[in-house]
Structures are given as C-alpha cells and as structure tokens.
Specification:
This is Alginate export domain-containing protein. The chain is built from two helices and 20 strands. It has an 18-stranded antiparallel β-barrel. A two-stranded antiparallel ribbon has the order 14-15. The chain is mostly beta strands. The two termini are about 35 Å apart. It has one domain: Porin (Beta Barrel).
Length: about 425
C-alpha cells in the first residue's frame, strides 16, 4: 500500500498541473491511436533426458492484439494500452497452463492493461509515471521482452534528463514488474512464474556521447520482494560500464564495436551470498549489403557461493533474454557454472523486393561453455529472414537448433529445434 501511495504522490504534481490546464484542453489536443497485431506459429521439437525425452512436440498458434491511444497537449500526455493474447492452437506448455508433457512456448493466453502512464516531456526532461515500457541500452539488463506475445512492463517512476550537451541521466524506481506470464501466472505449480513481481528496484543509467561512441555507467538494484525462494535469488546489485560506437571508413564500409563489464553480488532479500562478473565484447563490419558480427559474452559463476550447492552465477532477470545466448532460449536462467558464449554471424540486406522491402536474411553460430569446470554445453545455429511487406505489415520466419554436447549439464539442457512463422501489423 505504501508503494501505491508513493506512485500516487509522485503523480500528484502532474495531475494537479493538468487540472489547472483543464479549461484549455479542448484546444490543440492530439490523439494518437495504438493498434498492433501479431499472428505467430511456433513449433518446438525437444529431446534429451527424462522427462524431456517423453515430451510431445509443441505447436502453438497465437494471436496478440494491443489497442489503446495517447492523448497529448503541449508537454503533457496520457497513454492507455490494453493487450490480449489468444491461443488458437494450445498444444504447448505456456508455462502456466499445466500442460507439462509439452515443451514450453512462453506465450500464455491473457488480457491485461499493458501500459497506463502519465508523461511530462520536454527537450531536456521526460518524466513518466505509471505502468510503462522500459528498454535500457541493448536491453541486456532491463527490457520489455518484445519477442514474446505478452510484453514485460514496469509500475514505475522514470526520470530522463538531457539538459547537458551529450549527457543523459536516466533514473527509474519500480515497485513491480508485470511479467510475460499474464493473468494466470503462478497457477498449476508455476509459483516462480507469477503475474507480477513486487519489489523495490532501482535502475540508474548515465551516458555520455563522444565522437567515437557512447560511454555508459550503470547501477541496477533488484529487490524481488516475493515469498518464492527462486525469485528472491534474483535480488542483486549490479554495477558496470559499457562503451558502444561505430566508425565509418567509406560510404559502404563501417566498423562497429561494443565492450562492457559489470560486477554483481547478492542484495536485499537474496538468501545466497555470491559475487560474479559479466564481460562482453563485440565487433561488427558492414560492407555494402553484408554485415559480419563476432563476439563473446561471459556470465561468470561463484563456485563458493553460500546457501546453494554447485555455485551461483550472474543473473539478468529483467533483460530481454531472447536477444542473447541463442534463440532456443536454453540460458534464460544462467546455469550455476556460468556461461561463455562465443558467436559469429552474417546478415545480408536487400533494400527492395518488388514493392516490398527491405528483406534481411541472417545466420548466427553460438558455442556455449561454462565459466567453471570446463564444460562444453552445446552449439546452436540461428537463422532468420524478415521482410517489410508495406507500411503496416511485416513478415518473419526464424529457426533455432541447439545441439547438446555430452551429458545434460543443467535443467533443460536438451537437443532443441524451434521454428517460427509470423505476421505483424502496426497502425
């Protein structure tokens, strides 16, 4: 109740100023509708150790619709957006529907208020209060999980300040994360997949632009105030920095680069005493229509962590995890022995295909191993083709093939093949 009061108090100045301006609202009011739809087919073929070996192939046909609008006048705006997902073919384990014989496709049926926010925005300052979408940097630590049908949003107060040239200060205090598991979260024995996760979370992100790239310092304090031990283990304090930029050599040749380091340790209600490192480095080379990418990422492990057997590793519970460590989603929770992900990829872009375009085809290879104990978990192959059909429609086909090496090294470590076909509409 105190947290709800805090948000109401934080929004009071906005609502008060809006009331003062109420007589003039009939003039210069702008309404922007929100209409988005996505039809997706996803299939999962998963083998491996029992009970996974007895699983049936999953086949999911789901439709997602978002609808709402934003009313704005001057620097003030109010946005409301509803989101619903329908399972047309539910031969899959959504994570909360109890169909445990199928592999998971994390798109449960749901209806919810996805975003409800009041916003004050000027050139130097943006303040957002309410249920909102938050994507920081490349979403490695905080993101909206846009790949899933049900988006992750936050009940939060966010302040973005850009009043000093080349500098941006981005501060958020969140009292809850609205998860991808929807209104049935926590049902059928899935207590660690709740509808929302309450807590006292602070996301601090300060960036400075230079000629060579953007230098960012960050601090993410995650305090998951939940009874479930598996969720409290995600409570952590993470401090780090990243540098990302690009240098053009010619009109058709460009080098891009990224480097980041962070240190994480237990925080608040976490019963595990641990500390672990995060390191990533990536290079990209654009040559005309081709883009080559190579990099490595480490989510380290603390073998001496107290309170849990087998060690404990760096976790990123609020990240857009599907973007990282392979599309088969084998590493959404970092194994206790950590992850080293070495990857290389190539992409090719065709600007026009008749009246459609662009068309982008990509292929990426991952090699996964542990931080400790020299375990080669497996290899993964990812391929994707996207096509912009017109102003409102786009299409996608996508494939992931994870091949386990040796014995299963963590929960869910099994040969897995996934295929997606998808149509998106946005007004």
């Amino acid at each position: 109740m105190k947290k709800v009061s805090f948000l109401l108090s934080a929004s009071a100045p906005i609502m008060g100023l809006s009331a003062v301006a109420a007589p003039a609202l009939a003039q210069d009011v702008v309404f922007k509708p929100i209409v988005e739809a996505r039809l997706r087919y996803e299939t999962v073929d998963q083998a491996g150790p029992a009970p996974l070996s007895s699983s049936r192939d999953a086949h999911a046909v789901t439709m997602r619709l978002r609808a709402g609008g934003e009313i704005s006048k001057g620097p003030w705006a109010f946005l409301a957006e509803a989101e619903g997902t329908l399972a047309i073919d539910e031969d899959y384990n959504s994570g909360v529907n109890g169909k445990a014989l199928y592999p998971i496709v994390a798109d449960p049926e749901t209806v919810e208020a996805n975003r409800v926010q009041i916003q004050y925005r000027t050139k130097p300052l943006v303040v957002t209060v309410g249920r909102q979408r938050i994507n920081l940097d490349d979403q490695r630590f905080v993101g909206s999980v846009a790949w899933r049908q049900n988006e992750q949003t936050f009940d939060a107060v966010r302040v973005e300040y850009m009043g000093i040239k080349n500098l941006k200060v981005d501060l958020t205090y969140a009292i809850a994360a609205r998860t991808i598991w929807g209104i049935d979260g926590g049902k059928f024995g899935s207590a660690n997949r709740p509808t929302d996760i309450e807590g006292d979370d602070v996301f601090a992100n300060i960036s400075y632009k230079t000629k060579l790239g953007t230098l960012t310092g960050f601090a993410y304090l995650v305090d998951e105030d939940e009874a479930v031990v598996a969720l409290r283990r995600n409570s952590s304090q993470t401090y780090g920095a990243r540098f990302a930029g690009a240098v053009p050599f010619t009109k058709k040749v460009k080098l891009s680069y990224l480097a980041s380091y962070a240190r994480q340790s237990d925080y608040a209600t976490n019963p595990v005493d641990y500390s672990a490192d995060f390191v990533t480095a990536e290079l990209g080379l654009d040559v005309a229509a081709f883009k080559l990418t190579g990099g490595c990422e480490l989510l380290g492990s603390d073998g001496g962590a107290t309170g849990i057997a087998g060690g404990f590793a760096f976790q990123t519970p609020f990240a857009t995890l599907h973007k990282f460590n392979g599309w088969a989603d084998k590493f959404l929770t970092t194994p206790g022995t950590g992850i080293q992900d070495y990857y290389a990829g190539v992409a090719y872009t065709v600007p026009k295909v008749g009246k459609a375009g662009p068309l982008v085809a990509s292929f990426t290879f991952h090699r996964f191993s542990s931080d400790r104990l020299s375990i080669h978990y497996g290899d993964e192959y990812n391929a994707q083709v996207t096509l912009k059909l017109n102003k409102h429609l786009s299409a996608l086909v996508k494939y992931a093939d994870y091949q386990r090496k040796g014995i299963a090294s963590f929960t869910g470590d099994a040969d897995t093949r996934k295929f997606w076909a998808q149509i998106d509409y946005a007004f």
